[in-house]
Design brief:
The chain is α/β, with parallel strands linked by helices. It is about 30% helix and about 25% strand. The chain folds into three domains: about 5-60, 2-Layer Sandwich (Alpha-Beta Plaits), CATH 3.30.70; about 70-260, Rossmann fold (3-Layer(aba) Sandwich); about 280-400, Rossmann fold. The chain contains twelve helices and 21 strands. Strands 11-15-10-5-8-9-16 form a seven-stranded parallel beta sheet, sandwiched between helices. α8 (about 300-310) packs parallel to α12. The chain is globular, with a radius of gyration of 26 Å. The N and C termini lie far apart (about 80 Å). The structure holds flavin-adenine dinucleotide (FAD). Flavin-adenine dinucleotide (FAD) binds near residues 290, 317, 318 and 386. Flavin-adenine dinucleotide (FAD) binds next to α9, α10, β20 and α12.
């Protein structure tokens, strides 16, 4: 059998059950009572049609078993070190923090892979954040991020050193880059993970991410391919602590000139002008929900935020009501934040909101309903009316801070 799936004409009764069962519209039937046809460009070999056929008329080749020896050759946890103009971005430190746990569970090394020009200082910084080895490619052509050479170099390094796990930030750069790396390697890639762990039995990477619009959390494994690749959302994981005594090695890798070719040219870089404090980077956030009751009441939150140097966040209910722009939304479909202090005002604490802020160090909840779920995650809770509590807090902070 040459095709991986085929319909057996001698058994098929043209009932059409497979056409209905296919979730990818990959099976069609010209008219009733004709043998259906499978479009192999659409078929994902999910097997739904095989199960739906009562006449055993669909034959699907078993997927080749993974080569255990080939899989075992892949070791170590790799983190892609995102740098901009030589400055390593904080998402990299978060990946190193999480990568260390995975490497400990696997009993392997934690490595960073760094592409750029004049990377010595950045490489030393990665070791101080826990990398045992930094694979560095130091070339002027890699000074600025460009998809093609960065992807080609990473593919080459993965083939050379065979990491078991490859983590990358789910940033604009990471999203653009890592899919171009996964495809030539034929590796599984899970985007936008919010949780990573090692399966104690199989030692596979368990990659957890929201699915179906955030209504469920799905855990994905890539047992048959290496490396296991994942992008991770910013501010979900804790940064690896700085440890200047940590010892590691920097390995400068030689790369063939052809791999550095690019069909695009960097013209210039323009920094986005933020009109408000960038929520993802804010140390303190004051956030308002439906309990704020009307857009004018957000002025009260801005005053409190101004008094303590905080950014202003919001629940989706407040954003959907047009009380505040979407760029302020915190949660599963908004920003993920990890401030030192998060003050939730009139926010009930639904799971989708918690997904974006529950890793804050200290959560203060102000809500008139003592049963509100936000109190379950709050470090400090104030039961009462925000309209009276927030102005009192602002006045107290101003007095204490001498403002
Ligand atoms: C797929 C999906 C994705 C989602 N993504 C997000 C997301 O990214 N972010 C997000 O926030 N939500 C998200 N949601 C919506 C989420 O489920 C909730 O509907 C939303 O978080 C509720 O916002 P809220 O807490 O402000 O409003 P409510 O749930 O209505 O809560 C308002 C709270 O204010 C309190 N309150 C009212 N008046 C006062 C007062 N005067 N003083 C003190 N307290 C008062 C009430 O007791 C109540 O607890 C998503 C939902 C889905 C289905």
């Amino acid at each position: 059998m040459s095709d991986p799936i085929q319909i057996l004409n001698d058994k098929c009764v043209s009932c059409g059950a497979c056409v209905k069962a296919c979730p990818f519209d990959a099976i069609s039937q010209a008219e009733r009572k004709t043998i259906p046809v499978i479009d192999l460009t659409k078929c994902t070999l999910c097997g739904a049609c095989v199960q739906a056929c009562k006449f055993d008329a669909i034959l699907m080749q078993a997927k080749p078993a993974a080569d255990a020896n080939a899989i075992a050759a892949y070791k170590d946890v790799w983190v892609f070190a995102e740098q901009h103009e030589g400055r390593v971005q904080s998402i990299t430190y978060e990946l190193l923090g999480e990568g260390r746990k995975l490497a400990t569970d696997l009993g392997c090394r934690l490595c960073a892979v760094l592409l750029g020009h004049d990377v010595k200082a950045a490489a030393a910084g990665l070791i101080a954040r826990g990398a045992d080895i930094v694979y560095a490619v130091d070339r002027p052509e890699l000074a600025f991020f460009q998809d093609e050479p960065y992807a080609a170099v990473l593919v080459e390094l993965v083939r050379r050193h065979k990491p078991a796990i490859f983590l990358c930030g789910a940033s604009t750069m990471g999203r653009s880059l890592v899919s171009r790396v996964a495809v030539p390697l034929r590796a599984g890639l899970t985007a936008d993970c919010t949780g990573l762990a090692i399966d104690p039995e199989s030692k596979n990477l368990l990659q957890t991410r929201p699915a179906f619009g955030g209504n469920i959390m799905a855990t994905i494994v890539s047992p048959n391919a290496r490396p296991q690749m994942a992008t991770v959302r910013h501010k979900v994981m804790k940064e690896a602590p700085l440890d200047l005594t940590h010892q590691g090695k920097v390995r400068i890798e030689e790369i063939a000139f052809e791999l550095l070719a690019s069909r695009t040219r960097r013209v210039k870089f323009e920094l986005e002008v933020e009109t408000t404090l960038n929520l993802s980077e804010a140390n303190i956030i004051v956030a308002g929900g439906r309990g704020m009751q009307k857009p004018e009441n957000f002025a009260m939150l801005r005053e409190l935020a101004g008094a303590i140097g905080a950014g202003v966040g919001a629940s989706r209910a407040a954003v959907d009501a047009n009380w505040i722009p979407y760029s302020h939304q915190v949660g599963q479909t908004g920003k993920t934040v990890c401030p030192k202090i998060y003050i939730a005002c009139g926010i009930s604490g639904q799971i989708q909101h918690l997904a974006g802020m529950s890793s804050a160090d200290i959560i203060v909840a102000i809500n008139k309903d003592p049963e509100a779920p936000i109190f379950k995650v709050a470090t400090y809770g104030i039961v009462g009316d925000i309209m009276t509590i927030v102005p009192k807090l602002t006045a107290a902070f101003r007095a204490a801070l001498g403002k």
